[in-house]
Amino acid sequence: MYQALYRKYRPKTFDDVVGQDVIVKTLKNSITNNIVSHAYLFTGPRGTGKTSIAKIFAKILNCHDLKGLEPCNKCISCEQANNNQNIDIIEIDAASNNGVNEIREIRNKITLVPTNSKYKIYIIDEVHMLTDQAFNALLKTLEEPPSHIIFVLATTEPHKIPKTILSRCQRFDFKKVNANHIVDRLKYIVKNEKIKITDEALFEIAKLSDGGMRDSISLLDQALAYSDNEITINDIHEINGTLLPEEINDFILKMLNKDLVGLLSSLEEYDSSGKNIIKIVQELINRLKDCLIAINAPSLCNQDEFYDKVKSINNNKDIYMHIKALSSLISEMKNVNDSKLLLEIELIKNINNADIIDESASNNHNVEKVTKPLENNTSSKKEEKKDIVIEPVSNDTKLYDDKLLDELKKIRINNSLCKFSQKEREKIKKKLEDLDEYINDEEFGKTVSLIKDGELKAVSDNYLMFMYNTELLSESFNQDLINIESLLYKCFKDNYHVIAIDLKDWDFIKDDYNKHKDKYKFQEEQIDLNKIFNIESTKSTTKKNEIDEMFDDIIEYE
Question: Which residue from 1, 131, 237, 485 puts its CA 20 to 30 A from 388's CA?
Answer without folding.
Answer: 485
